[in-house]
Write the structure tokens for this entry.
Amino acid sequence: MDSGLQQLALCLFFILGRLFQATAEDDWKIATATLSRDRDGSSSVATGGACGYGDLRQSSFGGYSAGLSGKLFNRGSSCGACLEVRCVNHIRWCLQGSPSVVVTATDFCPPNSGLSSDYGGWCNFPKEHLELSHDAFTGIAETRAEMIPIQYRRVKCGRRGGLRFSLSGSSHFFQVLISNVGLDGEVVGVKVKGHTTAWIPMARNWGQNWHSSLDLIGQSLSFEVTLKGGKTIACYDVAPPYWRFGMTYQGNQFHS
């Protein structure tokens, strides 16, 4: 190969490398984050939240969870999403090397109109802000930091076991909380089927709680779950005819 062709090949290799690098960097979005605390100093996102998951210390999310500002929370449709987060551009508060952690969206960070968006009103619209659990925050920054600049991006959720269906309600109100969801984690549609019914669409009540006004007591239950990315899975006979409110049953899992 002559020198001219070698130079051309090197230029093309350099350009392609820069394009791939730019694409990778474009995946990251800019936001801010704080450490979420209760009055006793513990992390508030560890004890439940607006997604309905209950005590997160007993869930598959472990200690890595986050509350999202309104723009990111999107009225609960982002519940269950997995975000990779890293602290950037702050030599005092960011840990060396800018390590990243993966958190699950489990809560809503409410706005505070009495405070400026730049100081205290971190979750005011249209700010993109995360309230991180203790384990998540200390994995990327110094605990003493009040607010840190971050980058985040959506990633696939790695879950063990199948989808979990937690049942609640009465003979006139049937509700299911769906958790431990793989892939993008964001459930956008749910149907339920008794052994004597067709597939029945359910409505989002709040967070990842879905409801129907049907009386399904005494019927085996199947569920069809659709993710934001478009994938749908059918979990047949998840709960037997003798299921009870307050119980959690396990179905299939999404796989890439």
Q: What stands out?
A: The longest strand covers residues 100-108. DSSP finds three helices and 15 strands in the chain.
